[in-house]
Design brief:
Blueprint (H helix, E strand, L loop, with lengths): L1 E2 L3 H10 L4 E3 L3 H4 L11 H14 L5 E4 L9 H14 L4 E3 L5 H12 L4 E6 L18 H17 L3 E5 L3 H10 L4 E4 L7 E2 L1 E2 H4 L17 H17 L11
Parallel strand pairs: 1-2, 1-9, 2-3, 3-4, 4-5, 5-6, 6-7, 7-8
Helix pairs in contact: 1-3, 3-4, 4-5, 6-7
């Protein structure tokens, strides 16, 4: 699984035959240049989900429920998830955390036919109370809570759970105990699948180098050199040439 936010990249993902796409609220940081995911709106998630679906017509798409789109009441959560499902062709939604309230939201959404993916560990919408973007589940108490939360998500009806930045042994234990798939990001290899932000795995940001990330190419440098060459060609009048003219 990878995150994606537009039709052009979604088309490539479809050709690569990846299993599913996440339209993540990470778009706030990745494509909007914000400091966190918190400002992302439901309308923006819907907008980007529609773009991704146009590029990837046959791949399952999961869309994030953004911050404060499901926190006030179960009714608000139903309305937000319902808008995503009705106004896009998303196949499921994702929400963060396993509070009693969130579990009731998942249970109710499942009742009305909306599949829900859970998300534990580093939950970016809660980074303020987690002390920033850092590994979760280091203490024995926190590890036990992660396991309980994962089991509760499954019991509430989640069809899968993302485990972000948790120790590999904890992710392994959760994966062993759950019947639903676990998707890791910074959670080691003993999970059922992996997710990365598309721009990160392509090496678009040279300053972003977390331990869990593998950059499969240095697209930043490739694009930079292409732009420089384009500028040189225009300035020296080697572009456009006869081949590029009518």
């Amino acid at each position: 699984m990878v995150t994606c936010y537009d039709a052009s990249f979604a088309r490539i993902i479809a050709h690569a035959e990846l299993d599913c796409v996440l339209v993540g609220d990470s778009l706030g940081m990745v494509v909007q240049g914000r400091e966190s995911t918190l400002p992302v709106t439901l309308d923006e998630i819907i907008y980007h989900t529609n773009m991704v679906r146009r590029g990837a017509k046959d791949i399952p798409i999961i869309s994030d429920l953004p911050f404060m789109s499901y926190h006030s009441s179960v009714g608000d959560a139903i309305s937000s998830a319902g808008r995503i499902m009705k106004e896009t062709s998303a196949d499921a939604v994702k929400l963060e955390g396993a509070s009693d309230f969130n579990l009731s939201v998942i249970h109710r959404l499942r009742e009305i036919g909306i599949p829900v993916m859970g998300h534990l560990g580093l939950t970016p919408q809660s980074f303020h109370v987690l002390g920033g973007y850092k590994v979760q589940g280091k203490s024995k108490e926190d590890q036990e809570k992660l396991i309980r939360d994962a089991l509760n998500l499954e019991a509430a009806g989640a069809f899968s759970v993302v485990l972000e930045m948790v120790p590999a042994n904890v992710a392994k234990e959760i994966t062993t105990q759950l019947q639903i798939p676990t998707i890791g990001i910074g959670a080691g290899k003993y999970v059922d699948g992996q997710v990365l932000v598309l721009y990160d795995l392509l090496g678009m940001n040279p300053e972003f180098t977390p331990k869990f990330l593998k950059k499969y190419m240095n697209l930043y440098q490739t694009i930079l050199e292409s732009m420089k060459q384009y500028k040189r060609d225009v300035e020296t009048e080697t572009f456009p040439n006869e081949e590029n003219s009518f």
